[in-house]
UniProtKB/TrEMBL annotation:
Residues 72-99 form a coiled coil. GO terms for molecular function: transmembrane signaling receptor activity. Signal peptide: none annotated. SUPFAM superfamilies: Methyl-accepting chemotaxis protein (MCP) signaling domain (SSF58104). It comes from Shigella dysenteriae. This is Methyl-accepting transducer domain-containing protein.
Length: 136
C-alpha cells in the first residue's frame, strides 16, 4: 500500500509538474500577446497623433485659403466699384463732349455771320504767324 501510495504521489507530482509547465507556457503566451497589444496600442496612439497633426495642418491651410478667398472677393468688389465709377465718368465725359460740340457749332454759326475781306484775312493770318511761338 505504501508503494501504491508512493506511485500515486509520483503520478500526481508528474501531473502537477505538467500543469505547472502548461501554466508557465500559457503565461508566456499571454505575456507575448500583452506585449503585442501594447506595441499595437503604441502604434495606434502614434497614428492618432499623426492624424491629429494632419487635421491641424488641414485646418490651418483651410483658414489661409478662406482668408485668401476673402481678399480676392474684396478685390473683385473693389474692381466692380471702380468699373462702375469709370462707366459713370465715361458717360459724363460723353455728355460733356456733346455739350462742347454743340457749343462749338453754336459759336461757329455765330462767327460765320462775320465776313472779312480777302486782304484782311491775309493780314490776320500773317499776324497770327508772327504771334505764334516757335517750337523747336
Amino acid at each position: 500500500e505504501v508503494r501504491n501510495l508512493a506511485s500515486r504521489s509520483a503520478q500526481a507530482a508528474k501531473e502537477i509538474k505538467g500543469l505547472i509547465e502548461e501554466s508557465v507556457n500559457r503565461v508566456q503566451q499571454g505575456s507575448k500577446l500583452v506585449n503585442n497589444a501594447a506595441a499595437t496600442m503604441t502604434d495606434i496612439v502614434s497614428s492618432v497623433t499623426r492624424v491629429n497633426d494632419i487635421m491641424g495642418e488641414i485646418a490651418s491651410a483651410s483658414e489661409e485659403q478662406r482668408r485668401g478667398i476673402e481678399q480676392v472677393a474684396q478685390a473683385v468688389s473693389q474692381m466692380d466699384q471702380v468699373t462702375q465709377q469709370n462707366a459713370s465718368l465715361v458717360e459724363e465725359a460723353a455728355v460733356a463732349t456733346e455739350q462742347l460740340a454743340n457749343q462749338a457749332d453754336h459759336l461757329s454759326s455765330r462767327v460765320a455771320v462775320f465776313t472779312l475781306e480777302e486782304h484782311e484775312v491775309a493780314r490776320h493770318e500773317s499776324a497770327q504767324l508772327q504771334i505764334a511761338p516757335v517750337v523747336s
